[in-house]
C-alpha cells in the first residue's frame, strides 16, 4: 500500500534515539513509539541492542508489550493484561488497527460481532470510527457492509514477521517460484508448438501453390 516509505521515515527518529538511550528514558521512548502516528512496524527497533536488553531487565514487560505491537493483536494484550503495562487510549486504538491487519491476512469478510468482541468495543459507532481512522491512516482498505453486518477488507499494510516464521515464508516463496517456472515452461512449450504448426501450414500452402 501507499505510504510505506513515509512510515519508515517516521520510525527512523525513534531508532536513532534508542541507540543512545537506556533505563527510564528508553521506557518513555517505547511508550512514545507505541503512540506515534504512522508507525506500524517495530522489528528494526526491537533488534537494537539497548532494546534487546530491556527483555532481560526489571522492565521486561515493556519488551513484551513491544512484541505484541509488532506481532500480536488486541486480544493477545487482553489475555496477558495483568502482566503488561496499561495502554493509553492512543495505544489501544493503534493496537486495534494492527489487529485489523492481522485479521485481513486470514479472512476477507469479518462479522461485526467478532470485531466488537475481539477489539473490546461497546458500539457500532466505535467500530465505524476505528475503521475510518485506519483507512485515513492508510493501514487498511475496505468497506463496512451495514446490511450483512460485515467488514470487507481489500488490502492492508504489511506487519512485522517473527524470526522463527522466516523459514516458512522462504519455503512458500520457493514453492511459488517453482510453480511460476512450471507455468512459464508450459506456456513456452505451447508457443513453440503453435509456431511449429504455423510453419508447417505455411510450408504446405506454399507447396500447393507451387
- Helix share, percent: 55-70%
The counted number of beta strands is 3
Shape: elongated
Largest sheet: 3 strands, antiparallel
H and E string: HHHHHHHEHHEEH
Structural class: mainly alpha
Classify the beta-strand content into a percent band. 5-15%
Q: Counting H and I runs of at least 4 residues, what is the number of helices?
A: 10
InterPro entries: COPS7/eIF3m (IPR045237), CSN7_helixI (IPR041481), PCI_dom (IPR000717)
Pfam families: CSN7_HB_subdom, CSN7a_helixI, PCI
Keywords: Cytoplasm, Nucleus, Signalosome
Family: Belongs to the CSN7/EIF3M family. CSN7 subfamily.
Provide structural commentary.
It is elongated and about 90 Å long. It is mainly alpha-helical and 210 residues long. It has two domains: 4-156, no CATH class; 163-209. The chain has a three-stranded antiparallel sheet with strand order 1-3-2. It contains ten helices and three strands; from the N terminus they run αααααααβααββα. The chain is 65% helix and 8% strand. It has helices at residues 4-18, 23-35, 43-46, 49-54, 60-71, 74-79, 89-104, 112-118, 124-136, 166-209; strands at 109-111, 140-145, 150-156.
Amino acid at each position: 500500500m501507499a505510504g510505506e516509505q513515509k512510515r519508515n521515515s517516521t520510525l527512523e527518529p525513534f531508532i536513532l534515539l534508542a541507540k543512545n538511550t537506556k533505563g527510564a528514558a528508553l521506557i518513555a521512548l517505547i511508550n512514545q513509539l507505541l503512540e506515534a502516528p504512522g508507525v506500524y512496524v517495530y522489528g528494526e527497533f526491537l533488534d537494537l541492542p539497548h532494546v534487546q536488553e530491556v527483555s532481560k531487565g526489571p522492565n521486561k514487560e515493556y519488551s513484551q508489550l513491544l512484541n505484541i505491537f509488532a506481532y500480536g493483536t488486541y486480544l493477545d494484550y487482553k489475555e496477558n493484561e495483568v502482566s503488561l503495562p496499561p495502554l493509553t487510549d492512543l495505544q489501544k486504538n493503534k493496537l486495534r488497527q494492527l489487529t485489523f491487519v492481522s485479521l485481513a491476512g486470514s479472512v476477507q469478510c469479518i462479522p461485526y460481532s467478532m470485531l466488537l468482541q475481539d477489539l473490546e468495543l461497546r458500539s457500532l459507532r466505535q467500530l465505524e470510527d476505528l475503521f475510518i481512522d485506519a483507512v485515513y491512516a492508510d493501514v487498511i482498505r475496505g468497506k463496512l457492509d451495514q446490511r450483512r453486518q460485515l467488514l470487507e477488507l481489500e488490502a492492508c499494510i504489511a506487519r512485522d514477521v517473527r524470526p522463527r516464521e522466516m523459514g516458512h515464508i522462504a519455503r512458500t516463496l520457493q514453492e511459488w517460484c517453482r510453480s511460476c517456472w512450471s507455468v512459464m515452461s508450459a506456456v513456452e512449450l505451447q508457443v513453440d508448438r503453435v509456431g511449429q504448426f504455423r510453419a508447417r501450414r505455411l510450408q504446405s500452402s506454399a507447396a500447393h501453390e507451387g
